[in-house]
Amino acid sequence: MLTTAPRPGALLPEPVSGAFPLMIFDPADGTAVGEVAGVGADAAARAAAAAGAAFPGWAARTAAERAAALRAIAAGLREAAAELAALTTRETGKRLEESHAEVGFSAGFFEWFAEAALAAEAGAEEAPTAPGRAFRVRRVPLGVVAAITPWNFPLSIPARKVAAALAAGCTAVLKPSELTPLSAARMVEICQRHLPPGTLTMVTGDPIGLTAALTGDPHVAAVSFTGSTRVGRIVAGQCAERFLPAVLELGGRGPFVVGAGADVDEAVEALMVAKFRNNGASCIAANNVFVHRSHYDTFLERFTERVAGLRVGDPRDGSTDLGPVISAAERDRLAGLTAAAEARGARMWNGPRPPAEGCYVRPAVVECLADDPLWSDEIFGPVAAVRPFTDADALVQEINGWGYGLGGYVCDMPERARALAGRLRIGIVGVNNGAPNNPRVPFGGFGDSGQGREGGMPGLLEFTTYQTISEPA
To answer: Where in the numbering of this chain does the Aldehyde dehydrogenase domain appear (predicted)?
Structure first.
């Protein structure tokens, strides 16, 4: 049965002319999931204008009023958890269990930023003094935030951006991926029940055209983008033309380091989470696995055994470990990377064969040379690239020399692991665990992995700026 997302008129203030259908397909079996109405630059301009008109009223609300709305949205997401999880699984291919977790994670962002709004107001800075002069220094919301999000976490990444913007007193226009807009549309519907008209709108359609329309729109005061480094550079250039503040969460290479003091079995289990969560399509997924030579053979034996035992199939089946990737193009890209590495003589350990129909990828472990594309690129799928190491200093130099620094992992004795993690130019590092992210902590990268932070109090403050008012004492 098809699920049809609202026409643009339900997500924008007025009906939109010139809309066109965007059909969404299930990567597990190719069946149609539903349809959402695509729009063009004119609709993006109207969405931004509506958010601009709503901004003064929303910014004037107290932190307590904004927090109450965010908590109501969180409750609405939890009430719709079964529907949202099923929809997310059908349009992304992620396992149903993970989709349920994503709904809870998304609600958690609204709950956390409700707390953060109150904490930010309570922690307002004291005014400085000077002879004969009184000052009032405060943080004020920037205005309309354009939130541009990818397909791999179609609920939680929009939630992380939208909740922070709303908590700060901003309004927002969401542009989700054209590959997975249905769950985002449902989230926006739930949000709109608890927000003044225009406070949150959504547009879907051509990603290049809509992104350019939003970054160039005079109503837009800030941009929050998650995507590849290549596209992030384009978005940063568009923002620079108008000096727009931009939070950019971009690509990464996710080093996973197994040190000499690591517990091998615990490290394998952490890697299974860090590598294969979300079918391997996570911006902080383990990408380059470094194993100390003293553990290398044992680690490979146990890790490849675990990969060989993965169950690949229908993401709605509770016994499934890996579902399909998002599209046939992604399937073919990943197959090409592994085939090229094997042709160059790399050792490879394959997991179970996937179903013949659908966008499935055979999981694999590949022992890579440093110059192999499978080692030097972001994999973004259920293939692990591994290599031994012996020198920790050389390891740190190599990782920091990549220029990417979003997520990483270190498994070792706690004190040694923390020390090594602190030397890495990486925004979030999991020490002896494969799931380091949480709504309460800042999330973002160094270098080519972007700028700014999402989550935690910094995620709210990104959408504010200082205002100083000076008057005679």
So the answer is: 24-469
Do residues 460 and 388 share a domain? no
Residues 6+ apart with CB under 8 A from 52: 143, 144, 171, 219
Other CB atoms closer than 10 Å to residue 52's CB: what's the count?
19
Judge if 261 and 398 occupy the same domain: yes
Query: Which residue type does 59 have?
Result: A
Task: Give the Cα separation of 162 and 325 in Å (integer).
Answer: 26
* Terminal alpha carbon distance of the chain: 68
411 part of the active site = no
User: Residue 16: pLDDT above 90?
Assistant: no
Q: Phi and psi of 201, rounded to 5°?
A: -125, 170
241 is catalytic: no
pLDDT digits (tens, 9 = 90+) for 296-354: 999 999 999 999 999 999 999 999 999 999 999 999 999 999 999 999 999 999 999 99
pLDDT tens-digit map of 33-65: 999 889 999 999 999 999 999 999 999 999 999
Catalytic residue among 239, 283, 359, 411: 283
For the cut 70, the answer to whether the pLDDT of residue 182 exceeds it is yes
Annotated active-site residue in 98, 102, 111, 249:
249
Residue 291: which CATH number? Answer: 3.40.309.10
> Counting beta carbons within 10 angstroms of the beta carbon of residue 469, is it exposed (0 to 12), middle (13 to 18) or buried (19 or more)?
exposed
State the residue range of the domain holding 401: 255-438
Q: Are strands 464-472 and 446-447 parallel, antiparallel or unpaired?
A: unpaired
Q: In what order do the strands lie in the sheet with 129-130?
A: 129-130, 133-141, 464-472
Cα–Cα dist 472/8, whole Å: 51
Q: How far is CA 331 from CA 89, 275, 277, in A?
A: 17, 17, 17
Residues 259 and 234 in one domain: no
